[in-house]
From TrEMBL:
Record SMART domains: AlcB
Gene3D superfamilies to which the protein is assigned, alphabetical: 3.40.630.30
Protein name per the record: Lysine N-acyltransferase MbtK
Organism: Streptomyces cinereospinus
Family matches, as InterPro entries: Acyl_CoA_acyltransferase, Acyltransferase_MbtK/IucB-like
Pfam families, alphabetized: Acetyltransf_8
Superkingdom of source: Bacteria
Start and end residues of each Acyltransferase MbtK/IucB-like conserved domain: 9-56
Keyword Acyltransferase: yes
Pathway in which this enzyme or protein is active: Siderophore biosynthesis; mycobactin biosynthesis
UniProtKB keywords: Acyltransferase, Transferase
Length: 179
């Protein structure tokens, strides 16, 4: 397991855009669907998110250094409207680990664990909802490792996605913590 401290802070769409641009256009971020984005496209996208009361972006830090992007959203209003029946306490999530030339074994799993801990730190969060591309096998395995259960494939405007859910209890059980 990766050591160190994970924290998140609200993303600053203008100050963080150049950093994010390098991440979202990197070949390893193909499923983020921003490969051809210009810097101003990244600024515009994250300014849009910042203006949306139901969608929030955060810069994730590992020992104080930028390491990942985290988004949380209310699936009643963003991303999944009309694609499933949301329950009270549902929170949608996206995450992207910064590309690196020196991958650390277990780091991405440590990041998704930190993201889930952050989401479940809010007592109103009862279940986390994700909708990764059906072809993103690596993220499906990570999701399952932290307790997500795939429900079904859904068609979104931009992709065919695997709708999956993780309750607080499933997350704790996946971590080996008694509930």
């Amino acid at each position: 397991m990766t050591t160190g401290t994970f924290t998140v802070r609200p993303l600053d769409p203008l100050k963080d855009a150049e950093l994010l641009h390098g991440w979202v256009t990197h070949p390893k971020a193909a499923f983020w669907m921003m490969q051809d984005a210009r810097l101003r496209d990244v600024e515009r996208e994250y300014l849009r998110i910042a203006a949306d009361e139901h969608h929030h972006a955060y810069l994730g830090l590992h020992d104080g250094a930028p390491a990942f992007l985290m988004e949380k959203y209310d699936p009643r209003y963003v991303e999944l409207v009309g694609l499933y029946d949301p329950e009270p306490g549902d929170v949608g999530m996206h995450f992207l680990v910064a590309p690196t030339d020196r991958p650390v074994h277990g780091f991405t799993r440590a990041v998704i664990t930190a993201v889930m801990e952050e989401l479940f730190a809010d007592p109103r969060t009862r279940r986390v909802v994700v909708e990764p591309d059906v072809g993103n096998k690596a993220v499906h395995a990570l999701n399952e490792a932290v307790g997500f259960v795939p429900v079904r494939e859904i068609d979104k405007p931009e992709k065919r996605a695997l709708l999956s859910f993780c309750t607080r209890e499933q997350f704790m059980a996946a971590r080996g913590v008694a509930v």
